[in-house]
Amino acid sequence: MELTPDNATGAETLGAVRQCVRCIYDTRIPRISFDRAGVCNYCRQHEDLDREYPTGADGRAVLDATVEEMKRAGKGKPYDVVIGVSGGCDSSYMLHLAKKEFGLRVLAAHFDNTYNSRIAVENIQRVLGALDIDLFTHVVDNAEFQRVYRSFFEASVPEIDTPVDLALAAVHYMAASKYGIKYIWEGHSFRTEGISPPGWFYMDAKYVQSIHRRYGDGKIKTLPMLWMHRWLKWMVINRIRKFRPLYYLDYNKEETKDFLSKTYGWEWYGGHHMENRTAYFVNNYYLPRKFGIDLRYSELSALIRSGQLDRREALERIAEEKPFDEGILAEIKRRVGFSDVEWDDIMSAPVSHYTQHPTYKRRFEQMRLFFFALYKAGYVTKSFYHKFCVLKDDVVESKDLFQTLGWGDDERSAGRSAA
Length: 419
Ligand SMILES: [Zn+2]
Description:
This protein is an alpha/beta fold. Helix content is 53%, strand content 7%. The strands form two sheets. A five-stranded parallel β-sheet has the order 5-4-3-6-7, sandwiched between helices. The protein has a two-stranded antiparallel sheet with strand order 1-2. α4 (89-101) runs parallel beside α5 (118-131), α6 (142-155) packs across α8 (205-215) and α17 (368-376) runs antiparallel to α18. The longest helix has 18 residues, at 56-73. The chain starts with a helix and ends with a helix.
């Protein structure tokens, strides 16, 4: 074999696909690049985040100072902080942390898209009951949600979860503004969950509206929307900030799950984001089979980078078939109203990308300096600022994005060429 600059640096190659020597990302990940040591830019980004968000004593100092500030801001109000709950590990642990470790007065907020699993609902009840925490819930009109959900399938875009993700964010703000609360805690951890590479997913309220206008019917009335003017009002007028406490902790998911089961009778539901049946369906069936997107790459790579998983074990796990319960597919088809033939058409339809639809993206780019100020003041996250305001859409790359991915999904390409 000829010695090329690639293998001279020790990078592994799988046919034409080159893989990072540290994590399991490879050249099928959008915007990936490798340095001389064969380490990918996403691993280096993780190192930057590690420095920016220290754990141990330094992390504890940041947490203590922020909690003091939250208590000051909460004076005269019924609560200090809003925490979104899903019944999952991260949000359940945050409730414990906020109330037991830091003595904060917590208001839990929940958006019910009517697809919660039984385990998730029981987990929420157990933890909130044991900690005596109040709950703010917003339930969406079921028929309306099915219509919005269906329009995203019809549009052939991968962002099936976007209406729910944005509604969650909006519900947290609604709960905070109702009681004058100045802080929202988010359960994201780049060390266990990772950050999905730019190009996989996009989200904003205008995107939801344009997909629904073109492919759906009826009006959006009960689905909370994060419209630009509402969002800016919540940040600039109501002064509601976001904080991610898990960034400052040596957060180990396996240990946390054990802790939650022992302390609260919390139950594991078998996979990240599997507390909700639509999320399970999208992650284990729709994204991998139609778009070649497997979120395990991002999660397992994050665990390797934070030293919680061996690279060899990650490769073994990714080689395993994703488990899937066919009953959920039948339920989604029935509830959203797809016949078997219609569903086959959805699965084989050519994929579409967010750049082909009206969004706020250009406005975010134009408002870059303003959002930089918001990021610095703790109102938006760094990853939002970077992905939505700094990175420009590369239209050529975007158009070919899913076509060039082809994560060994022969069924999908066969379906497309037949269509
Ligand atoms: Zn890497």
